[in-house]
Amino acid sequence: MAAQPSQSSIDAMARAVYEQCLQAPSDYLFSVSELQDLVPGKNNLELTQKVLNELLRTRSLSALTRGSQTVFRSVPKDFAEKVKNMTADEEMLYGYIQESAREGIWTKQLKMKSNMHSTAVNKALKGLERKKYIKSIKSVNHPARNIYMLYELTPSIEVTGGPWFTDSELDKEFVNELLTAITKFMISKSFPKLSTRGAMGSFPPGHTGYPTLNQVYLWVKSSNLTEVDLAEADIRSLLDVLVYDGKIERVVGDTAYRAVRRPDSINGFAESPCGRCPVFALCKEGGPVSASNCVYFEDWLNA
Amino acid sequence: MSQNVVELCVLLARDIYGEVSSRVVSVLLESGRLTVVQLVRELKLPEKIVKQTLAVLIQQHLVVHFAHLETGQEVVYYECEWTQVYGLLRAGRIIRAVEDRFGSNGALIVSNLLQLGHARVSDFLAAYGTSTKKSKATVNGKSNVPVIDDESPITSIEILKSVMAEMMKERFLVQVQEHHMHIRTDTRNTLRAQLTSQLRKSQLSESKLGKEVDRQMKIRMRELADGDTSQHAGMKRKAVSASKPRSKKRQKVSIYDLIEQEEEEWEINEDIVLRINHEKFSVLFRNAELVSLAKSRHGKISSLVYAEFLKRLEEKYFRCRELYPGDGDEEDDPNKRIKLSVLELSKTFNKEIDLENSIVAAPHPHKRKARKRGYSDAEDEDESRSNGYGKKVNGKGKRGQSKTDDDGDDDDDDDDISDLEEPYDDDEEGIDAENRKKKIRMELLKQHMQLLAEDSWKFVRLESNRGLGEWSVNYKELGKLMRQLELEKVVEETFGEMGLRLLRIIKDKGKLEEKQIASIALLKQKEIRSILTGLQENGYLHLQEVPKTSIPQISRTYFLWFHDPDRAIQSLVTDTYKAMSRVIQRTNVERAKRSSLLEKWERSDVQANVEEYLTTSEKRELEIWLSREEKLLGQLMRLDRTMMILRDF
């Protein structure tokens, strides 16, 4: 057998076969016989074997098993290109990371799946990260975990925590700004404007003009408050928070919201020196802290 | 009963009745019921003094007693009625409330009764008539039996009697009955024993007997608590030999009103003994509190409507909380609820608002209302725009206000439109303006009631559509709401807005994990942790551990936060008691610091000539003391207000 010239021709043949494989749908699985048909030297088992080996070596095909049969899948060109630069370890990890898609995968899981030593895993991950094939992300649910994801993907909402999170940290200022803005909006819609200042009016009973969730949503959209794309559900959670803050209430059969005035009276306990006293529990007549030596009372009396 | 209450009660007793009384109160509260012999042993005081003190305290209703037959001998036990001791704090509040309603005569009667505990009408009047006579035929001649001031403005006994009768009719004063002086548990036990032996004759089975006794107990206890509720309870017919001018008056009245004439013939029975009914005053204070809540939510006018509404219902409510909650409540049976229609309400309300407007000095009696309606004009205009019919009268000059609404309000009912036109149409209508005015007013009243009903706090509740709508008040729920609001205020004050948000989330959702709370509240988990534990320390939140595995392990355990309103309120109540004690103690400390100065100041010769006898620095110190005392007392009263809401309403 003339092995010498066949090396280059095998390469060419392999490339041709690969091109043909790419024509098929990307997740199509080729059986050995199908590939054998693609190789020029018909039914030349030896040649097919060589071609396949070459294809597998260049990572243009990947071998899988279906039942007891061995089947092959074509690997997309750009990926094949990347894989060429990877070590075997790196390639395996890359596969797992790719599978995890937008959720990302935790290093501990990678170790478990790959059954590799952790130094090997770390080394491979470092290599992949350096080549900008993967990136490390932070998950809101598990801030302490090292999670990796393909470089070109954006993390899913479950991972980032949604619009309220910036770098997996809850953006308090952002949320508060939105809350304040919506409160103002609600107030403007909930009470009639009266000609006299300071007078309190109410809309007549049965009034249905209070803003609904959708109206608030549309207002936020049109108001240029934020560049972040907020969904209606996000606005709902903001409104829920305002309800819990006691600033607005649900009206018209829970379909709309309106601002409420807060009672201005102060609780007698909260305003008394004892209500704010940090050592209130210790305070006892004759004890180390008592009404007679209380500094808070003195301050309060002098105020 | 918590230690904090005992502390507070003892302080109150000491402030008002002195050291010995406070020690008696303290021993009785700490050890429970005692006989005189036991008391003497505990107090290490002469029996005579103990007995005298007990007599005073019994007169004031601070101590109750009951005689038991033990081994053939009658043994009398004494118990301290701490609610009455706490009630001492309310004196100022009660006098003020009575003054508002019954004028200075009422205030005079009440303040004397508060000092005396209870008094026979004839004795009271006699002391009043012959004001030099000191003793008032009360239990003892101790120094703290007050003397009615010689200088007090002379009011005729007839007027005092009628005011007293009026106050008794409204249950602010009640007749003292035997059971008032007895230990409640004993009264109940005796009654139960009586009923059981009575019913045993009817040969019921044991379980049936128990149920029947329970049922009758409730009826009997309620009867006892309510006292005589008949129309002329505690009254007697006036003597037939009435003097001439009076009979003339009677004739005069009878021409106009038969009922009034009949009332004229009754007067208060001078033989009955009267006392202050704290329960009824709580009802009054609760209404006032609700009105101020309504005012903060819906403005003054709505609150005035609400105030009048509550006042009309007031006579039907004897106390804030049912004796047997959950049993035969008005709440369970819609037919039993106490309700009032707008039609009824308008009968008394008309005068009220006219009065109000005349004080405000608005040239147009409807001005406030008209302005209030201004916004609904805006609504209407929207409607007219969208519906395509315009309104000449209202359409102009109101445009500025119509911007408030962006989507057409189609649900405005026709009533609205007609009464909105009213204020402006009066001049044109002319003839039946009076009638229409009445109609408008009623419609407005109805609208205010609807506003109050629509509020998520449910100030009132629609019962039926009779008479422009019949309404009732769910005091039970409102009480819960008010308590919750107080708690929320405390939480907000101590833990800020975030604390309030967390508390309300947990209350709404039930049991929650920290992570879930954070995601609902849109707050960082790290931030809320300290607040949650703070809330737990104060007893407003609690933790529930749920192990995931059969062997409990911290890492495999859910920690669920939850809020139990009753426990939270209870812990706030205890804290409030403690805070009240501290305020009183501090007042005493401040007073003790300046005791020599104050002694000097209280001398009558110094009082007569303050300028001369006190140095500048003394005067300055005195001023400081007076302002501090005022501040502390004010705080005490505000704490009491919180306490009323938390405990009594």
TrEMBL record, chain A:
Keywords: DNA-directed RNA polymerase, Nucleus, Transcription. It is found in: Nucleus. This is DNA-directed RNA polymerase III subunit RPC6. Signal peptide: none annotated. Belongs to the eukaryotic RPC34/RPC39 RNA polymerase subunit family. Transmembrane segments: none annotated. One of its GO terms (cellular component) is RNA polymerase III complex. Its main location: nucleus. DNA-dependent RNA polymerase catalyzes the transcription of DNA into RNA using the four ribonucleoside triphosphates as substrates. Specific peripheric component of RNA polymerase III which synthesizes small RNAs, such as 5S rRNA and tRNAs.
UniProtKB/TrEMBL annotation, chain B:
Residues 164-478 form the RNA polymerase III Rpc82 C -terminal domain. GO terms for cellular component: RNA polymerase III complex. GO terms for molecular function: single-stranded DNA binding. Residues 234-246, 364-373 have a biased composition (Basic residues). One of its GO terms (biological process) is DNA-templated transcription. Coiled coil: none annotated. Residues 7-66 form the RNA polymerase III subunit RPC82-related helix-turn-helix domain. Pfam families: HTH_9 (PF08221), RNA_pol_Rpc82 (PF05645), WHD_POLR3C (PF22536). It is found in: Nucleus. InterPro entries: POLR3C_WHD, RNA_pol_III_RPC82-rel_HTH, RNA_pol_III_Rpc82_C, RPC3, WH-like_DNA-bd_sf, WH_DNA-bd_sf. This is DNA-directed RNA polymerase III subunit RPC3. Residues 487-562 form the DNA-directed RNA polymerase III subunit RPC3 winged-helix domain. DNA-dependent RNA polymerase catalyzes the transcription of DNA into RNA using the four ribonucleoside triphosphates as substrates. Specific core component of RNA polymerase III which synthesizes small RNAs, such as 5S rRNA and tRNAs. Residues 406-432 have a biased composition (Acidic residues). Belongs to the RNA polymerase beta chain family. Component of the RNA polymerase III (Pol III) complex consisting of 17 subunits. Keywords: DNA-directed RNA polymerase, Nucleus, Transcription. Residues 225-246, 360-433 are annotated as: Disordered.
